[in-house]
Every structure is written in C-alpha cells, then in structure tokens.
Amino acid sequence: MTIRIQKLRDNAVLPAYQSDMAAGADLYAALEAPLTLAPMDRALVPTGIAAQPDREDCVLVIAARSGLAVKKGVTLSNGIGVVDADYRGEICVGLVNLGKDTVTIEPGDRIAQLLVMPVLRAVFTEADSLDGTDRGTGGFGHTGTK
Fold this sequence. Notes:
- By secondary structure, the chain is mainly beta.
- It has one domain: Deoxyuridine 5'-Triphosphate Nucleotidohydrolase, Chain A.
- The chain has one helix and eleven strands, in the order E-E-E-E-E-E-H-E-E-E-E-E.
- The strands form four sheets. It has a four-stranded antiparallel β-sheet, with no helix packed on it. A three-stranded antiparallel β-sheet has the order 4-9-7. The chain has a two-stranded antiparallel sheet with strand order 1-5.
- It starts with a strand and ends in a 28-residue tail after the last strand.
C-alpha cells in the first residue's frame, strides 16, 4: 500500500516507522515554536502533512504514543483520531496533558502514531427486534464473568 504525503509546512516530517515490525508510524509536531501544555490543557498540534492513500477501503488512525502518555501524561484529547480516505487537509493531532506537570512539545517532537487500517462499510437497516443472546442487554463489564 502506498500513501502519498504532501508537505504543507517547511518543517514537516514524513511519518516514519521506528522499527521493522512497528504497527504505527510516528507523526511529528510541525510547530513554529515550542508549545507548553499545563496540566489539563489541550492543543491542536499541526503535523504539516496531508495524506492520500492509494485505496479507498482504508482509514488512517491516529493513536497515542505510549511513551509520551506513560512518562509525561500527554495523550490524545479525543482518544483516537480518524483520517478518512477522502480527507485532504492537514493532519492535526489533538493533545491533552493529563499529567501533574507542565509539558513542552518542541518542533519536530514525535507526538502520535499513524496506523493504516482496512474499513468495512455497513448497511444500517431498522429492525423491530434483535436476536437474543446469553449476554442480552448486559454491558459495561456485565458479561456474566465473575
């Protein structure tokens, strides 16, 4: 699979895998100056890139970098980001500082991971009822296990 990347900013960096078996490619902050995030602050951080997958049946998924989240408390403000195959604008990453200390994001820092995933599109139809299961309507940890 090929994903064409357009640099929209001079300091943009192409996504890059950090190991041979990495599932996610790192995304980099295309900031003009350092960005300071106080505890509970949120910011939309530009990556300086736009993407075009060569297939329509995939999606680019933005995931948190585990090291940034565990070591500094900085994660995605929306939990996960979805970049649809037909989006051509700049990919930006919503970050939130859930830690106790102020964190500074520097230009060029790795801020998130980009995964490529297949997409199945469903046909949604209204139904008067649904088939029963052992689980039924139990949710939120109520799967019957103790």
